[in-house]
Amino acid sequence: AQLVTQPDGHINVSEGNHVELRCNYSYGGSIYLFWYVQYPNQGLQFLLKYLPGPTRVKGIKGFEADFKKDENSFHLMKASAHWSDSAKYFCALCDTEPESAGGAEQKPSQTL
Question: Which Pfam families would you find in this protein's record (predicted)?
């Protein structure tokens, strides 16, 4: 069975500081991992995805994520947080190759 957890729930970060949002998963097969963001009063927006290949993934708005298979993690990071980053962040996992960024199952959110 697939399982994705975001253990931090809600975090506070001062503007200009490094931020990391944790995502852990449990699944033994090939996986595709995603991060989405939902700004207040808006729908989900795609941030980045991991497909088999490089373990460091660069996304939009300065976000990036590290895929660590040995730790079953895909943590989202940004070197310098900005007030406009305040939003809910969703980590998602898919066990079949996606045709596009959409369609991945969404898991519990994390608010920044």
Answer: V-set (PF07686)
